[in-house]
């Protein structure tokens, strides 16, 4: 399998060598700086230590259970948004598809549909929205920013119109148990996130599809010349992104016990932030599901810690913005080293 770059195509083994060359000549401190995962772990440790000193409640099992629950929704969507960014795409519609999934399943359950069918239809709506995004981007050649921004407004507008902007409740207890239940004290939501994460990681790292989407992100034209059906793979990526958003929205309704039209506001920015903070390059080709998991955890920890510190939660945006800028700066540094290694 070849991995396209701006200077042609190289094999996966050669690409790994280039990655090592990009960091092999660096001092230990510099190697640490070019590792986004280390930056995230360090951020979590330092911030957690500070919050613990101010509020011992931070380390309680109940508090960490809430932190992980809140991170689940960002991560489930972020896992497949990682695919989108790795392929050099962009999906701004996940927040609206999230609310479509939440309200669709609630509407169907309230109307008496079986739980399995309501869930399947809700996820199908997400797949359909992703299909529309992918087709318009790849076959009609409309920029991803424009298409997904349009879908953001369309999906949320239709969801609000159909429900009249009113919450949908009550929902069946058996359905609510999907989002509120636990096994041996561990919330079911965490199990769902682990399963989604493992599947997304394996696909990205160990399958031809994962190699193909990385190739597309590295150099779209070179990927096409090497025999990859670029448009087909890209459409599938957007369908997976839409499906994950609708699935997460369904889980949110199960957790709340109702369909809330207000959920998902600004959610797309949280997801993209988690993916970028996790080390995925905005320019395509580089990224990991594990990094996105850490990015989602950072956002949840920041939100929780600021509440315990009784600091204005709006300052979370300031901290997230700073972390994003640092993450992108590190990405630029890494890419610069990589291409210098290629030229050598």
Notes on the protein architecture:
With 344 residues, the protein is mainly α. It has one domain (41-47, 56-337): ABC transporter involved in vitamin B12 uptake, BtuC, CATH 1.10.3470. Helix content is 74%, strand content 3%. The strands form 2 sheets. Strands 1-2 form a two-stranded antiparallel ribbon. Helix 1 packs across helix 15, helix 4 (61-86) packs across helix 14 (289-308) and helix 8 (173-180) crosses helix 12. The longest helix is centred in the last third of the chain and has 29 residues, at 315-343. The radius of gyration is 21 Å and the shape is globular. Residues 1-25 have low confidence and may be disordered.
Condensed summary:
By secondary structure, the protein is mainly alpha-helical. It has helices at 12-24, 28-33, 36-54, 61-86, 94-110, 115-138, 144-163, 173-180, 188-206, 208-218, 220-225, 230-256, 267-277, 289-308, 315-343, and strands at residues 2-5, 8-11, 182-183, 186-187. The chain is globular, with a radius of gyration of 21 Å.
Key features?
344 residues; mainly alpha; ABC transporter involved in vitamin B12 uptake, BtuC; two-stranded antiparallel sheet; 4 strands; 74% helix; 3% strand
Derived structural class: mainly alpha
At the third CATH level, what is the topology name? ABC transporter involved in vitamin B12 uptake, BtuC
Beta fraction of the residues?
Answer: under 5%
N-to-C CA distance:
22 Å
Query: How are the strands of the biggest sheet laid out side by side?
Result: 1-2
As an assembly, this protein is single chain
Q: What is the CATH class designation?
A: Mainly Alpha
Poorly predicted ranges (pLDDT <50, ≥5 residues)? Answer: 1-25
Tally of individual helices: 15
The CATH architecture category equals: Orthogonal Bundle
Choose one word for the global shape. Answer: globular
Query: Helicity range of the residues?
Result: over 70%
């Amino acid at each position: 399998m070849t991995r396209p770059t701006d200077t042609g195509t190289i094999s996966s083994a050669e690409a790994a060598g280039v990655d090592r060359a990009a960091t092999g000549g660096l001092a230990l401190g510099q190697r640490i700086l070019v590792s986004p995962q280390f930056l995230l772990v360090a951020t979590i440790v330092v911030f957690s230590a500070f919050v613990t000193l101010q509020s011992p409640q931070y380390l309680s099992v109940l508090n960490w259970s809430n932190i992980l629950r809140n991170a689940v929704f960002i991560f489930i969507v972020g896992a497949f948004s990682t695919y989108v960014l790795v392929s050099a795409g962009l999906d701004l519609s996940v927040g609206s598809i999230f609310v479509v999934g939440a309200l669709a399943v609630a509407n169907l359950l309230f109307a008496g549909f079986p739980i399995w069918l309501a869930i399947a239809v809700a996820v199908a709506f997400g797949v359909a929205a992703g299909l529309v995004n992918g087709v318009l981007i790849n076959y009609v050649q409309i920029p991803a920013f424009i298409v997904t921004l349009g879908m953001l407004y369309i999906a949320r507008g239709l969801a609000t119109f159909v429900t009249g902007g009113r919450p949908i409740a009550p929902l069946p207890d058996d359905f609510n148990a999907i989002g509120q239940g636990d096994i041996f004290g561990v919330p079911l939501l965490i199990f769902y996130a682990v399963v989604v994460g493992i599947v997304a990681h394996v696909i990205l790292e160990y399958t031809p599809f994962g190699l193909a989407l990385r190739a597309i992100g590295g150099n779209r034209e070179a990927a096409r010349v090497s025999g990859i059906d670029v448009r087909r793979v890209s459409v599938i990526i957007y369908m997976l992104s839409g499906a994950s958003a609708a699935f997460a929205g369904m889980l949110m309704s199960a957790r709340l016990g109702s369909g809330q039209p207000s959920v998902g506001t600004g959610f797309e920015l949280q997801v993209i932030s988690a993916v970028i903070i996790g080390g995925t390059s905005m320019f395509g080709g580089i990224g990991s599901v594990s990094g996105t998991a850490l990015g989602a955890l950072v956002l949840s920890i920041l939100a929780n810690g600021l509440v315990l510190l009784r600091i204005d939660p709006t300052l979370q945006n300031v901290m997230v913005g700073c972390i994003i800028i640092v993450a992108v700066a590190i990405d630029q540094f890494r890419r610069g080293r990589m291409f210098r290694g290629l030229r050598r």
